[in-house]
Design a protein that fits this description.
The chain is an all-alpha fold and about 190 residues long. The protein is built from 10 helices and no strands.
Length: about 190
Amino acid sequence: MTRDFGELPAGVAPMTNPPLDFEAFHRMHRPAYVRWAKSYLSNLADAEEAVDWAFEQLLVDWPRVLAKESPAAYAWQVMKNRTVDVGRARGRRALLVDTAVFETAALREAVDPIGQLEQSLALFRAIEDLPERQRDVTVLLYSHGHSVRETADHLGITPAAVRSTARYARRRLQETLGLATEGHADDVAH
């Protein structure tokens, strides 16, 4: 497969006879990775290509990946970097707001779709401005509907770190959007 955004090292065949632990890792993470990449690339084929390219890179370095303190955290970063690379190669900047704002249930069910669209745009722009870890947790938990445990597994962090990060992200979003910061808004019930 020839790519216009980079190649694997010479002589490396894509995903031939991968180790069983790699296959399990691939099965566990690929769907969430593709969904995340699609959120930013606005194109399923590009998202799949970016994620597959990331997994090919991970396979090449699999023993070193497993030696990392958190293989899942390392793999998440590789996937994100490949997503950005594909976006650049396609002449697009990876932005959450591009399509996510139009895919919300609130917009589909809104009495005032234009008002809801404005609110959704403001929210997604505020999410884009979050620090990277807060943004990733917010997207996985609230946009993609993953549980705290699933989010922790994909990001390679603890569930407690997910809950704490989500609380900080919610507070920051509330401040950015000028919303009241009631105690109940900080609860993460996933």
